[in-house]
Amino acid sequence: MSIRCAVIGSGSWGTALALQLARAGNDVWMWSRTADAASAIQVARENKRYLPGIPIPNNVTTAHDLAAVLKDARLVVAAVPSQSLREVMAQAGAFIHSDAVVCCASKGVENGSLMTMHHVLLDVLPTSLHSRVCALAGPSFAREVGEGRPTAVVVAGLDEPAAHLVADAFHAGAFRVYHTDDMMGAELGGALKNVIAIACGVADGIGAGLNARAALITRGLAEIGRLASSLGANPMTLAGLAGMGDLVLTCTGDLSRNRRVGIGLGQGKTLEQILEELGQVAEGVRTTRSARNLGIQSGVEMPITEQVYLMLYENKPVPEALKDLLGRQRKAERD
User: Fold this and answer.
1) Is 335's pLDDT higher than 90?
2) Other beta carbons within 10 Å of 94
3) CA–CA separation, 111 vs 267, rounded Å?
4) Mind giving me the DSSP string for 62-73?
5) This prediction's pTM
6) Helix (H, G, I), strand (E, B), or coil: what is residue 10?
7) What region does 315 belong to: left with phi over 0, alpha with psi -120 to 50, or beta?
8) How many Å from the N-terminal Cα to the C-terminal Cα in the chain?
9) Phi, psi (5° rounding) for residue 16?
10) Distance CA 310, CA 256 (A)
11) Tens-place pLDDT, residues 26-60
12) Could you tell me where the beta strands, DSSP code E, fall in the chain?
């Protein structure tokens, strides 16, 4: 069944999701932060900055006016950078229909409040929407989703009809959608894998080898699982698409911006140099700070996150960080 959808955000991820919703036969409106950017995409029928070479079909309309984009939308997808989510969705809330379903596709933990993204939405959206807030997670590079390559994701939501509406809206062609009721597990898996991806990039940047990468992915998953479980998540969620699936993709794929940040650090570049070259948001950079603080607040040991934080924010030399990580006291694997 075709529905009207609003995608808030016209970066690579927002554009890719708009393309998939359009492929599924929906009427899609996409919001862009500036009028110039919206006009450029609308006229060119292509997002030349973020997803060049991928045509945007006629059932996608791009605009800067939030009221116009959100008018009569049955599904609202938030796809802005995680640290901008509060500001943008607070403005959007006044225009979202009270019966709409809101799906958060942003991945991160808010600095300061240490809230996951769906908790940020609960904080800023009208209470009439709270029960129908969902989250989208899983291994899904924007470029490949935009190109229509085979992808599997998961929608997390406490309200089953709402989760199914989101899944049905996206599920088409090569894009397969599962569902779960574990919001915390899905969100933390999607957020914290970016931190581990930076660590894997550092290892790749210094030529540590494939054994090191595999070790970081595996122990990174254990680290994510400890924190998620302490906050009420189902550990099995971390073995699925939102956990292991997204972690493996982000830690190994060449399209991973967070891995590229780590590679740059391993090659001796400054964070400022890396981000300038990247030209896009790498969520893991800011999520590292909030993930570290969340671990401290929860009393959960997160050694990989700690070393990534020290490299990013306290200029700790990469060799020293690696030495401290490898030099930790030996312990049982499941501890």
Assistant:
1) no
2) 11
3) 27
4) EES-HHHHHTT-
5) 0.96
6) coil
7) left
8) 48
9) -60, -40
10) 21
11) 999 999 999 999 999 999 999 999 999 999 999 99
12) 4-8, 27-31, 46-47, 51-55, 60-63, 75-78, 101-104, 133-137, 151-157, 175-180
Q: How far apart are the C-alpha atoms of 82 and 192, rounded to whole Å?
A: 12
Paired tokens of 215: 């070790």
- Condensed to tens digits (0 to 9), the pLDDT of residues 49-88 reads 999 999 999 999 999 999 999 999 999 999 999 999 999 9
Distance of CA 287 to the CA centre of its chain: 10
- DSSP-derived 3-state class of residue 24: coil
Q: Which of 107, 193, 269, 331 is flagged as catalytic?
A: 193
Let me know if 274 is exposed, middle or buried by CB neighbors in 10 A (0-12, 13-18, 19+).
buried
Radius of gyration for the chain, computed over Cα atoms and rounded to the nearest angstrom: 19
Contacts for 293 with CB less than 8 Å, ≥ 6 apart: 114
Q: Is 150 exposed, middle or buried (0-12, 13-18, 19+ CB in 10 A)?
A: exposed
Three-class DSSP labels, 162-211 = HHHHHHHHHCECCEEEEEECCHHHHHHHHHHHHHHHHHHHHHHHCCCCHH
Q: Which residue has the tokens 């940020």?
A: 120
> Is the confidence at residue 246, as pLDDT, over 80?
yes
pLDDT in the model for residue 280: 83
Q: Return the residue matching tokens 């030495």.
A: 323
- Hey, how many other C-beta atoms are within 10 angstroms of the C-beta on 36? 10
C-alpha span between 107 and 109 (Å, rounded): 7
The amino acid at 298: S
152 strand-pairing partners: 176
Calpha distance 43→60 (Å, rounded): 12
- The single residue listed with the structure tokens 């809206």 is 169
Task: Calculate the average pLDDT of the chain.
Answer: 96
For 26, the token pair is 């929906």
More confident residue, 332 or 184: 184
Measured CA distances, 107 to 1, 145, 184, 283, 291 (Å):
28, 16, 12, 7, 12
What's the CA gap between 11 and 81, in Å, rounded?
A: 9
Q: Is 193 a catalytic residue?
A: yes
The answer to whether the beta carbons of residues 100 and 74 sit under 8 Å apart is yes
